[in-house]
Prior knowledge:
Number of strands: 17
CATH architecture of the largest domain: 2-Layer Sandwich
Structural class: alpha+beta
Distance between the termini: 53 Å
Helix content: 25-40%
Strand content: 15-25%
CATH topology of the largest domain: BirA Bifunctional Protein, domain 2
Radius of gyration: 27 Å
Shape: elongated
Number of helices: 14
Oligomer: single chain
CATH class of the largest domain: Alpha Beta
Amino acid sequence: MPETKKLSLEPYKGTRDFYPKDQFIQNYIFGVWRKVAERFGYLEYNASILEETDLYRAKSGEEIVSEQTYSFTDRGGRDVTIRPEMTPTVARMVAQKRKELSFPLRWFSIPNLFRYERPQRGRLREHWQLNCDIFGVDSIEADVEIISLAYEIMKGFGAKDENFVIKLNNRRALNRLFSEMGLDEEKQKTFRRLLDKKGKIPDFDEQAKAILGKPFNANLEPDKETSELMQKLTKLGITNVVFEPFLVRGFDYYTGTVFEMYDTNPVNPRALFGGGRYDDLVGIFGVEKVSGIGFGWGDVTTRDFLETYNLLPEYQPPVKLYICHLENYLEAANQLASDLRKQGVNVAVDLTSRKVSQQVKTADKENIPFVLVVGEEEAKSGKFKLKNLKLGKEVVVNQENIISSLQIS
RNA sequence: GUGCCCGUAGUUCAAUGGUAGAACGCUACUCUGUGGCAGUAGUCACGAGGGUUCGAUUCCCUUCGGGCACCCCA
């Protein structure tokens, strides 16, 4: 064998392996997302992780595409990018079937997304994100629904109101403010980024003055639209909402309400979800304009949040019963397993010839709730000692009573 | 991509310019048909590569990975 470089055991930088216990948590998070989204009448869609690079160039700008995405040229010479976000894809899909879709549209997806960045806590190169969007509703009622959907998902995870805060702002109001200040396009962009950092940087006032040529002192009351939104949310019992006049969000395509949700515990400094209204996005595909509002909700920050507040469920494998066997009884054990599987029970059989104590130990370590042993006694009597490993209790049952005994747990 | 910090058994940690310890875990036995407790024995590591040195896990460089800040935040 030729000498080869030792292969790394670690997952690729900024990505995660999901061992069964990790996947269990991932499934739990996805499950809550899906359950609540469907409860609000949202339909699930998906698409390829690959898109033509132009899709992102059109709205994100060359810099983001070339420096912060996984992009390559395929063998046919096409510029391809692994999707860094879902919104352009869903806007494309909506635009493509603009004429045959019936609006309003409520859609959700749980795509994995990739960005080429230096990983940090809460921010990896691959992550999954719940995307919920409403298309074709211009009124504030869509803003109300999308935020209450997000709020109900937090409730679905067991979060308390004091654990998180939803910050609101309005891009239209912000732009109005910028116009009043007489800022040109370029200065607006620069100043918007500065605003986004206010609170993080100590010399905000000086920097603001450098851009504006004068001190920054604006009226920081909520605009009319945001006030109305907050009132409507309050009526729904959603009160952990604050007006955040410096909330900007990075993308230029937002046209109205923007929002983000933060953990109130500073160990998780990144937003769990964020989104806003983008009424002009579908229109850039050259079809009749369709308004939209939605959010993206990351799995990484969510997991950190749930760990912080001890809200993760206890691991439970899908296997309900582990069948052990004595020498020469593996065949009988498999037969029993086969019968039970036909009735819909998840059963695993120990395939080794180890001592029964070892077999039981394996079941226990795998958190399998029930175990039974097949041996001479059982073969003769047709009765099984079914043991609940959590309670340490045994019941003696006929084969036909095994299933009902499993359900007692 | 830039700067700074970090990288020791499976895990959490310790020590040291002369090749490393603990706890938990894991394996076996005590226990010839039932795990969790206990006892005994055993097992496993200096992320990788190069340099300085008589000798490096320890110092230096590179690289890989993680964290923090910047950047950006989809």
